[in-house]
Amino acid sequence: MTEEQVQETAKAAQAAAAEFRKSGLSKRKAFYVALARLLEENREAIKSANAQDLAAAQANQLSDAMMDRLTLGDGRIDDLIQAVGEIELFEDPLGASEGRRLENGLMLQKVSVGIGVVGFIYESRPNVTIDAVALCVKSGNAVILKGGKEAIYSNEILSEICIKALKEVGLPEGLVSLLDCSDRAMVGYLVRQEGLVDLVIPRGGHGLIRRVVEESLVPVIKHDAGNCHIYVEETANQAEALEIIRNAKTQRPGVCNALESLVVDESIAAEFLPKLKEALADVELRLCEKSLKYLPEGTPATADDFYTEYLGLILSVKSVSGLDEAVNHVQEHSSGHTEAILTQSLKNSELFLQQVDSAVVLCNASTRFSDGGQFGLGAEIGISTDRLHARGPMGAAQMTTYKYVVRGDGQIRG
């Protein structure tokens, strides 16, 4: 595709979004029914396309984490169908309003509306093709998809299924389009469509995020790396803490809400770290100088380790002298995604939750709960690490903006 073709795609998406506002909003329920049915009917074709991507990924020696993100087995197809059904049943995020009558008699309403045309740039995970489309249609938006080359066949069939569902229920096809997944130039073309694309959402590694932010002429909401921390405070229930840490690190190590860095109060480090090593026997521990005193056979951590999103079975470990040092360490090294404290101290839990400025903060729970589905959003287009417009898991409601509607009966301004 050329830049001119991307521009034409964006124009078609803009026209489709305008048409959607005229007559299509009442047809959204039918779209979800059709999409869920088509996903089921095309289950074997989806797995066949995904097998092509997996074979290429294996030949290119992609990491285990990337292979996991790429895989679309029956279980994940079931999850997609379930997410589509949940989004269908959600309260309509469009048209919700708050209003009041002004002193001059004007009736003022603040009404939620779709953003317009969303450019969604993502890597590895083809399942988010369906999440992105379902959430954008629910929130009154058109979406232009730019997936990664590692998922080209999976993304193609999933986007075709979405377009077929749109056609079946009489919605404009231009609401969903897929750019050439194999060509990195598409990213630059898409983010320069000022006036046609209203928002760009990049979801992927730091390099992708940085490129989009630097090149975009369109507003961006970043879904950046998940360098997630857990702080084991001195009063923590250690048996419970080990279970939480194991879940956060090993249940799915290749996802953005997996634990990447553990912070341990040094008053319990001598007792706790040997237990940690036993509980995480399959995880490489990269240890700060203090922590190495208790696990001298461990791997010394470099300064870069504490900034790294490993997406694999590696964990950095930092020993600290109390809550203040723990908070300072997290704030310095965090990507602003998700952090947790494990403690039995109400005072320290509240201080941590108040002082740590990430999109999601938890007490006595796994970082793996930082997830749109777990938060009751049905699905998410990603987890925003920005502060403006949306922060944390972005569901349908976070994919809207608003306009003011004013009704009068002849008022003029004096």
SSE order and pairing:
Layout: H1 3-24, H2 28-41, H3 43-59, H4 64-70, H5 74-89, E1 97-101, E2 107-114, E3 117-122, H6 127-138, E4 142-146, H7 152-168, E5 176-178, H8 185-191, E6 199-203, H9 206-215, E7 228-232, H10 238-250, E8 259-265, H11 266-279, E9 284-287, H12 289-292, E10 299-300, E11 314-320, H13 323-333, E12 338-342, H14 346-355, E13 360-363, E14 383-384, E15 392-393, E16 400-407
Parallel strand pairs: 3-4, 3-6, 4-5, 7-8, 7-12, 8-11, 9-10, 9-11, 12-13
Antiparallel strand pairs: 1-2, 2-16, 14-15
Helix pairs in contact: 2-5, 2-7, 3-7, 5-6, 6-7, 10-11
CATH class of the largest domain: Alpha Beta
What sort of overall outline do the alpha carbons produce when their principal axes are compared? globular
State the helical fraction.
Answer: 40-55%
Question: Can you tell me the number of structural domains?
Answer: 2
End-to-end separation:
55 Å
Strand content: 15-25%
How many β-strand runs?
16
List low-pLDDT spans.
Answer: none
CATH topology of the largest domain: Aldehyde Dehydrogenase, Chain A, domain 1
Average predicted local confidence, pLDDT: 94
Strand arrangement across the biggest beta sheet: 10-9-11-8-7-12-13
Element order, helices and strands? HHHHHEEEHEHEHEHEHEHEHEEHEHEEEE
